[in-house]
């Protein structure tokens, strides 16, 4: 059943094409109900990690720029309705501690909401140029990483059960490790 769902989502990504992934990443960065990591993985499964990494990375940059602009234009109250007070509180602490570096680290670190970083940066005195440079530096490694995971899972599914199980186990272990490290990092640096 899971394979059927994954196949349908990859098929949808095939229909949308790389430009569709680009648009999804922009929408995801602005309204955030869609996990960017998952979309990048499906993009990697559909187009390979290079094409998906490029389309997804550029989409994240554009989406982040729109979120940043919305924050600058409409302010904290409006942004709070979009991302919630908890995510905004996290972003406040994050930017207070790290300043512009918070953008790069927030893009690299897994399980830190992309939109909260973008909206939070827009509520600071960080310039648009600094924001875009930092977002670009952080977005492409993230996009390529998740796109590669999607490609690897797809290839392992085609290779057979033993390889599929091994790849899935490795990916789950890596994601759990990344989650644990990011949680530890958040606990240490957001107090």
Helices, strands, pairings?
Elements: H1 2-31, H2 36-47, H3 49-83, H4 85-98, H5 101-108, H6 114-122, H7 128-159, H8 161-189
Helix pairs in contact: 1-2, 1-3, 2-3, 2-7, 3-4, 3-6, 3-7, 4-6, 5-6, 5-7, 7-8
Structure description:
- With 191 residues, the chain is an all-alpha fold.
- The mean pLDDT is 82.
- 88% of the residues lie in helices and 0% in strands.
- The chain has one domain (2-189).
- It contains 8 helices and no strands.
- Helix 2 packs antiparallel against helix 3 (49-83).
CA(first)-CA(last) distance: 43 Å
Taken from the alpha-carbon principal axes, the silhouette is: globular
Number of helices: 8
Q: Taking Cα atoms only, what radius of gyration do you get, to the nearest Å?
A: 17 Å
What structural class do helix, strand and pairing data support? mainly alpha
H/E element string?
Answer: HHHHHHHH
- Secondary structure: helix percent: over 70%
Strand content: under 5%
Estimate the mean pLDDT confidence: 82
What are the segments in which pLDDT stays under 50 over at least 5 consecutive residues? none
- The figure for the number of domains is 1
Specify the biggest β-sheet: none
Number of strands: 0
Write a concise keyword list for the protein shown above.
191 residues; mainly alpha; globular; single chain
Nutshell version of this structure?
With about 190 residues, the protein is mainly α. The chain is about 90% helix and about 0% strand. It has helices at about 1-30, 35-45, 50-85, 85-100, 100-110, 115-120, 130-160, 160-190.
